[in-house]
Amino acid sequence: MYLQNSALKPMFKFYKTPQKACFYLLSAIFFCTVFEAAAADWTSISQDKNSEMLVDMDSYNESDGLPYISSKTLFSKPQNDRKNGLNFSYSESHSTTQFNCTLHTFKDNATQFYSANKKLVGNKKSDGLFKPISAGSKYAALESLVCQVHKMVGGS
Q1: Cα–Cα distance between 156 and 78 in angstroms, integer?
Q2: pTM of the complete model
């Protein structure tokens, strides 16, 4: 690729060779693509006067044939957690929740708690036990969505 009579020649005058210019251009495009793909796209699925639940549909996956998804809950008022001898206040929680669509049960595999200024203030790991889903709960809305996708991709 020789740019002697090309209109693009002034654009590449800072580079010694056209190959170097192409390398820099491709690198810039790659980095823009990588950073764009890393951002979560949150979609609201449930809201009441105290909280709003959002999901990242791109996080849907399966483990041992059971679907799971990442969600976050935004609280209108700070919540307090006084379990396990810890005491912290949080305004947002992020969870990875797994479902058994046949038995209508769920478990939060991991939950992170964030303050109003988006600082991590606590973590909770799952006890590994699936719990029943109550009708009308935030987990019922999440289960409906996740299990519908699970069926669409060939799950039972």
Answers
A1: 39
A2: 0.68
Shared domain for 121 and 144, answered yes or no, is yes
- What pLDDT, in 10s, does the model give residues 41-57? 999 998 989 999 999 99
C-alpha closest to that of 147 among 81, 98, 82:
98
Give the chain's residues under pLDDT 50.
1, 12, 34-37
For residues 69 and 83, what is the distance between their CA atoms, to the nearest angstrom?
Answer: 25
Domain harbouring 148, CATH code: 2.40.128.710
Spatial separation of the C-alpha atoms in residues 69 and 40, rounded to whole Å: 12
Q: How far apart are CA 134 and CA 139, in angstroms?
A: 8
Cβ–Cβ < 8 Å for 111, 131 = no
pLDDT at 26: 54
Residue that is written with structure tokens 């976050």 in the block? 72
Question: Are residues 107 and 135 located together in one domain of the fold?
Answer: yes
